[in-house]
Amino acid sequence: MILEEIEENPNCRAADMMRFREIGPAKRVVQVRLYHEDSNGKWYGVTGWTDRPEAPTAEAFIQPVEDSGSGVAYLLFSAGPCGLRFKPHSESPWSLTDPSQWGEPFLLLGDSRDVVVKVS
Q1: How many Cα atoms within 13 Å fall on the side-chain side of residue 4?
Q2: How far apart are CA 2 and CA 50, in angstroms?
């Protein structure tokens, strides 16, 4: 059972406690395709976020979970306590002050092809 609760923080809004039943292993994610700006999807860098100013990033993971509506969903979550952070594909550093970046507590995705996992 995965429990996700994110308190309000400078990166993202709060998210009440959510429970997810995992049905497969978690994998580290470095990119995700989102559809909020383009109906064909657009790729973004993703990282987990922490409350440590000297080391704000953490790993981001995708894990298959049960979804009552479609059977399987993919939970995108952070190893850090402050949710996920997204940015357009660029070499700019991760930053809370960059207006092209934004945070989310976690995301549920419908297709595992919408992520790029980190190869060890």
Answers
A1: 24
A2: 19
pLDDT in tens, the chain (120 residues): 778 889 999 999 999 988 899 999 999 999 999 998 889 999 999 999 999 999 999 999 999 999 877 689 999 999 999 999 999 977 899 999 999 999 999 999 999 999 999 887
Question: Are 22 and 108 a contacting pair, CB within 8 Å?
Answer: no
| Residue at token pair 């993919």 | 74
Tokens of 99: 């207006």
What's the CA gap between 34 and 111, in Å, rounded?
Answer: 11
Rg (CA), the chain: 14
**What's the rounded Cα separation, in Å, for the pair 111 and 47?**
19
Give pTM, 2 decimals: 0.92
User: What sign for the dihedral angle of Cα 59, 60, 65, 67?
Assistant: positive
Residue type, 14: A
